[in-house]
Amino acid sequence: MTIDETRAYMADWSKKLCDEGFLVDYQGSLSCRVGETMLISPRKKKLSALKPDDIILVDIQSGSMTTGANPPADFSVHREIYRNRKDINALVHSFELNFLTCSKSGKTIYPLLDDMAQIVGPTARTAAYTEPVKNKVRSAVVKKLKKRNAVLLSDNGALCAGNDLDDTHAVCQVFMKGCKCFIETEFLGGGKRINPLETRLMRLVYLMKYSKQTVENR
Amino acid sequence: MSINEAREIVQEACVELVKAGLVARTWGNISARVDDEVFVITPSGRRYEDLTVTDMVPVKISDLTHEGSIKPSSEKGLHAEIYKQNKGVNAVIHTHQTHASTVAAARKDITGIGKKHSALLGTTVRVAAYGLPGTGKLARATAEALGASNAALMANHGAVCVGKKMRDAFAVARALEEAAEEFIARSFLSASGQNGPFSLAAMHTFYLNMMAER
Description:
Chain A has helices spanning about 5-20, 75-85, 95-105, 115-120, 135-145, 165-185, 195-210, 215, and strands spanning about 30-35, 35-40, 55-60, 90-95, 125, 150-155, 160. By secondary structure, chain A is α+β, with helices and mostly antiparallel strands.
């Protein structure tokens, strides 16, 4: 996809993610990698009505961007992830209620459902997060996201990651359900944990085989 | 029923279930019985919105072999087990629906189902023992929990809903989601000692206070 195509693609996804409650106007952010650059939603813009021209272009290595651009407070976290994870090309920072509650609890979320084990990873951990974002915070987020597709940012919701925004949307859906289970099973006598070894096995099978079926099984 | 008729029923169900929010993307699977030997099921790993009638895969109940180059859902064994056990069942829907999955994550039966849903669900929906996805263990445990009822929860996974016709299984899936939501709300009010009506915001606040005290 070209940069212009990606801008339009992000504007479409921004509306869809707002419709589903993963983004709220003026809260949260989304970004995509295009080659050596990153495109990211701006601060203080209505995300449900985001226009392609509103989106900010950032050089991933240097961090330089258009003069006068107003990036979101977490933009350097997005950049740091793209610098460290070549498998990730799209990110969504969501303040959805289940994410927010889990990020406030500080708990490590272990999968209570098979699909979270497959799509998010063996656990989802919480990284210490404060704004303005400093180097220590960026490193912590990258570290806690290692070998996973989502990380909680303390008191600040979740950062979901994928190969593209469609993939990242799937991570948002599955991780949101995983967080809901984690919270609500507390009132059902507690969630029953899946064997950690089986969790890792499911993740491996998903990455190596099942995730490729959409294209291959035709 | 012919294979093509079954394929059409499954394809229409895919559209309806996505619209109703009971299935999404590639998650879950849907099948319809052709006769005592064959059923037709959604393919493995494909998005519901992209599926055409010819993508649906005929599978033999006895040995799980399939026709054509498109691979059937990896949960074909679960569907076969149910068709073998319940001769009156002609449609099976396996979902990852949100509220039912939440109860399944606690490995609890849904109990105390009220009049609104008991005609379809009975007063209890049982949860099956855990098995890894796609395994015989999961298929057998789910069929056993289902017994002669219309729905069962699958531990840490989702739910299975059945019917004489596809529209019956669809109605069961809808009723199950409502019953599961009510069960969670009732359980929260009982555990927290709060009076109704249920509020999601109150549940989250209570949860955070509880975690802070631990």
